[in-house]
Amino acid sequence: MLDKFVAMTPDVYRYLVDHRSDQDPVLAELAAETAELGNVSLMQIAPEQGAFMALLARAIGARDAVEVGTFTGYSALCVARALPADGRLLCCDISAEWTAIGRRYWERAGVAHKVDLRIGPALDTLRALPPAEQFDLAFIDADKLNYASYYEEILRRLRPNGLILFDNVLWMGEVANPYAQDDDCLALRSLNDRLAADPRVESVMLPVADGLTIVRKRRSVEGA
Predict the structure, then answer these.
(1) Rounded to 5°, angle at Cα 57 from 101 and 196
(2) Would you call 116 helix, strand, or coil by DSSP?
(3) What average pLDDT score do residues 197-216 get?
(4) What's this model's pTM, rounded to 2 decimal places?
(5) Which of 123, 144, 193, 215 could bridge to 184 as Cys pair (CB 3.0-4.6 Å)?
(6) pLDDT at 224 over 60
């Protein structure tokens, strides 16, 4: 079964993207404006990933969500639209400049009232939250060296059966390259091993964009 996958060529990728159901003009305009930023625009998630995240949010009935790493707001817009009218998305980022772009599009999409954007170090924001289980869904897409710390702070505040999504877990395939020893790759490799062995969650890694891991928080009685 090791060869049971489809190689992602540009033509196959375009076909895949074209066949998602949510073709959103506001998202498309946000993506186009972000692309004008140059190479830094690579920090934006892929369109199929955004659609997948929105589908997951709706499927689990998410009401309260948190995002670490907002950039220009594409992923936040995908998730916020999937939340109910009284839903809440806490966005943690350090850039007022980039998130200002997102604010404009959240307003245009009519979801700004759902988004609580907090500028500052995400660990400080998370640690200042009440320790109670409050989130249904989380997305982590920020500095890789702190992924494990973000995970711990969010997991304790995640309801049982809630989901945490981690971006960039394949790191352009470098996590499988034993010669890749940069700090980010080492951090992601360590995280991937940790998630797969963590008895508090069940996890699956998917080849979506640059790799997306989904973990579900187990109920405490599972496996007892």
Answers:
(1) 105
(2) strand
(3) 97
(4) 0.94
(5) 144
(6) no
User: 54 CB contacts (<8 Å, ≥6 apart)?
Assistant: 22, 78, 79, 81, 82
DSSP 24-90: -HHHHHHHHHHHTT-GGGGGSPPHHHHHHHHHHHHHTT--EEEEE--TTSHHHHHHHHHS-TT-EEE
Query: CA–CA separation, 95 vs 90, rounded Å?
Result: 15
Give the three-state DSSP class for 105: helix
> Domains plus CATH for the chain?
10-217 (3.40.50.150)
| CA distances (Å), origin 146, targets 47, 86, 90, 172 | 25, 30, 18, 19
Instruction: Give the 3-state DSSP-derived string for 164-191, with helices as H, strands as E and coil as C.
Output: EEEECCCHHHHHHCCCCCCHHHHHHHHH
Among the listed residues 165, 167, 166, 162, the one whose alpha carbon sits nearest the alpha carbon of residue 217: 162
Q: Dihedrals φ, ψ of 36, to 5°?
A: -70, -10
- For residue 23, name the pLDDT band (cuts at 50, 70, 90): confident
Tell me the Cα Rg of the chain: 17
Q: Which residues contact 220 (CB under 8 A, 6 or more apart)?
A: 160
Comparing CA positions, the residue from 157, 163, 156, 149 lying closest to residue 191 is 149
Which whole-number Å values give the CA distances from 112 to 43, 80, 126, 221, in the listed order? 22, 8, 21, 38
